[in-house]
Each structure stands twice: as structure tokens, then as C-alpha cells.
Specification:
The structure is a single chain. By secondary structure, this protein is an alpha/beta fold. Helices cover 25% and strands 28% of the residues. The protein is built from ten helices and 29 strands. The strands form five sheets. The chain has an eight-stranded parallel β-sheet. Strand 8 and strand 9 form a beta hairpin. The longest helix is centred in the middle third of the chain and has 23 residues. The chain is elongated. The relative contact order is 0.09. The N terminus is likely disordered.
Length: 555
Amino acid sequence: MLALSLLLLIVAAGVGKVEAAKQPQATSVSLQSSPNPALSSDVILISGVLKAGKGLGNQQVEVKYSADQATWISISVVISGRDGKFSYSWKPTLQGTIYLQAVFGGASGYRSSTSNVVVQQVNSPTLPMYVGYIGFLTVQGTQFVDQAGNFVVLRGANFFGYEYGLFGTHTEADYKKMASWGFNLVRLPIAWNFIEPEPNQYDDTYLQRTVDRDLAWAEKYGIHIIISMHQYGWSPHFTWFDSWATAGLPLWAASTYENTLAGEGQSRADFWNGLGPNGSPVSESNPSMQDRFFAMWQHVARRYSSSTVVAGYDIFNEPYSYSIDYKLRPDDLWTLVPKVLATFHAKLVDSIRIVDPIHICFWEAPSDSPNRPNTAYSPHYPGQGDFERYDAVKVRSAVERVIAVSQAWNVPVFVGEWGMLASAGDVATYIRDFYDLTDKYLMSSAWWSYGKGGFQMYLLDQSGNERVVLTQNLIRPYLGMSSTTPSYSSYSPDTKEFRVGLQGPCEMRVYVSPFRDVAQVNVDSGSASTFWVSVNYVMGVSATSGASQVSVILV
């Protein structure tokens, strides 16, 4: 009996020893961050060591952050090295006091452990007054993207005057005003007749007094410029319907045509048929007007090829436009132009690419796609028959057709001109509806036009006061940039809610004028936060993984 008891004790002791050997080993995690404090523009290095007596390698450690130490949000899962060390570079999306922690969930033979809490201070840097997109703008499928790969939306206005030689009409204050409205783009019309006043003689003083000066102001206020080669009334020679506001073909190239509707029509037809100045035969010493146009554009593009303020070139304004009388069609222009325009645009883009391979070339209807990379489709006034009456069904249908064309040709859309007279009874509804469509389809656009004068589409009257029925509807929040491709955006004037569909993690830039603060941020999954990008009321929105819809209530 004594022997049996002794045997049981030995067995029990042996079992105890086996069970003790199977107990998981204790672990510890240390954590630190640098720099601390940091600026919100800094990348913070979060690092630590996982130990189980000595460094424990090849293990998963989750790094988290919290704004209140109650709700913890995962930043990343990292793998420890052989010595147990781990690190992660983190770009914060919050400001103020943030708490960091690392968690080891345990593994075979090792217990879980949680690090110390690191109190990380993130301060706001001195914000710039104005911001634009990064580097050069280019085309990626149906999107505009900047040099960092961010999705970009352009929104703003044309700024008329230089195409007519009105050199004193633009000021720095104008660009400051447009920036305060949230505009990030100006489409700037200039004219061939001023650039090449004599054959093969380019007047750079014209570009210095106009484009160069406006580019400096635009850069200062975070605005980008599309240089538009304008024609209106085809040439300043043709004053039969407008005594001063005509621009395009130089006088020396049109001087022998009659100053009549028929004369203008013949000049247009001769251009599209590839003839020389005043309809003369083409020879080696007498290039066609098309070739002269290509050479002029090369001169301009060479000058601005290195400018990141320039968003691109609108290569020929309204090639289909026929003054104000659509009845007389010499040489059947409305049949001729669509037939030759795509080939003309392709040759023109190729000519510009010789001196400037980077900037976007915008082309207009009624052309088919020139089938050249880094180009964009730029229709005008979709669905509008005139500037006094609004037909919602026509405008919506026309915009939907534009989007279908964009997708079929795989190019972005920039509506280079749109607008309605301030005196039109339903102009406010028109603007709101049109912006609803551009928000929905994330489409870029420019109102015609910023400037001062009696014409009821100008945003300022003769005294320089805002036409409030226009500006109070044009100035509203919109998505200007996103690190990932959004699916849609929307804004409700009634609830002051801006909404965007996205794929988190994502950081966005929202132009929020006329609002000055955020009342509430909502997200369907994960989390989202806001921060100011510039003093001029450009707001950043950051969303974590899992988020697919963010809304911001503005005040």
C-alpha cells in the first residue's frame, strides 16, 4: 500500500512538471514615436520592441491610435524583426493630443501583451494662404490627375478681355476674389491676331502683358490656368456684326475678304480647306493658314512648357461657331468642319507635343476624338439653345450624352463654357441643377465669364459689384482633389451637407466657400476626420480603411 501511494505521488509530480512546461512565456512590448511633438504635415515614426526574455521576431504587432483612449483605431499591422524591433511611418490625420499603443495578440508559446500608451502631440503647421494641385496636371483615362496621382476636379470661370486687347481689365484683386470664392481654375482666352500681328512675327510683349502677368497672380492664389486660343467672329477684320469684339485670324490673313457674312464664311471655308492667307494657293514659301496656326501654337506652348500653373491648352475655341447667323453656310461649313476637325486637332496636338510633351490639350466639338494621349474633351453650353431660357430635361440629357462620349473615348470632360443671363428668371435653378450634375459626375467646368461689364453673364456689373443671383449660387462646396478615385459627390444647399463616395483609406481636399467651419462629420464605416489645408477655407477630409461614404455638415 505504501509503494502504491509513493508511485501515485511520483506520477502526480511528473504531470505537474509537464503542465508547467506548457505554460506560454510572458512577453512585453515597448513603444515610442518621433518626432514628438510633430506637425500635421510630418511623417511620424512609430517604433518599438517585442520581447520574450529577448527580442521576439517574426510576430505580428498591431499599432493603434485613439483620440480619447476609449475608441482605438488600427493604423497598421507590422512584423517584428529577428531582434524583436518593429516600426511604421505614419502620416497623422488628426491634430492635438493623440494616443498611440501597440498590441501583440499572442502566439504559440507566447502570451499577449500591450505596450505603454504614448501621448503624441500633433500641431498644425502655419497654413498656406492658398493651395493648388501638385505639379503638372495630366490625363489618366476619364480623370484629371496631378503629379502625385491625386484625382483632380477643376472649377472656376473664364476671364475675358485679353482676346479683345482689353489689357487693363485684369488685376491681382480679381484672382484673390476668385480664390476666395473657391475657384481653382481660370480659362484665359487669348487671340492669334495679337500673337502674330505680321506673318511669322510673334509679339511676345502681348504674352508678357497678359498670360505672364496672370500666371503670376494665379500662382499666388492657388489657381491654375487653361490658355484658350480664342476666336469670336473669326477675325477682327470681320466687324459686320460687332464693331470691336471680334478675334482670331490675323488681319493680314483676312484683309481681302468682304466684311460681310458671306466674306466671313468664305474665309472660314478657305481655312478648313487648307488654303493660305486670304484664300491663296499653298506653296513652300506660302504655308497654309492651318500650318501657320500650328507654328503659332508651338511658339506659345514652348514659352509655357515648364509652367505647373498652366493646366493645359484649349487649342481652338468653338471651331464650329459661325458668328450670329446660322442660315448662310458657304461651302457647307457645318458639314465640312466636322469632317476635317479630328484630323486637324490630331495634327495640332502633334505639333504642340514637339515643344511641350506634358500639358493637356483640350479639344472642342463637333470633332471626333483626335485619338491622342493626354487630351480632354471640352464641350460648351450642353443642352442650351440660348442664354435666357432653361430646359432642365435638355440640359440633363446633354450632360449625360457628354459623359457617355467621355467614357466611349476614355477621356476626361471639361465644360469650357457654360452659363445663363442673370436676368433670366430661372438662372438660379439652372446653376444649382448644373452643379448637381457636375458634382454627380465629378466633371470639371468654367462659367462664362468672370469680368466687369453690362453683359448679364459677367459675374461683376459695370461698377464691379457682384451679380449676386449668379455668385450666391456659383459659390458652393465641391471636391477639388482626392488621393483615391471617388464614385460621386453631392451638395445640398438646404442641409449644407457635402457628401462623397470613396474607397478608404483616402484623403480629400474640399473647397468649402462660403462656409467657415465644420459642424459634423459622418462616415458609414471606419472613421473620418477633417483638418484645414489652407487659410482660404480649403478643408482636408481623411477617411480610414472601410469607409465608402463620408458626409460633412458645414456652418
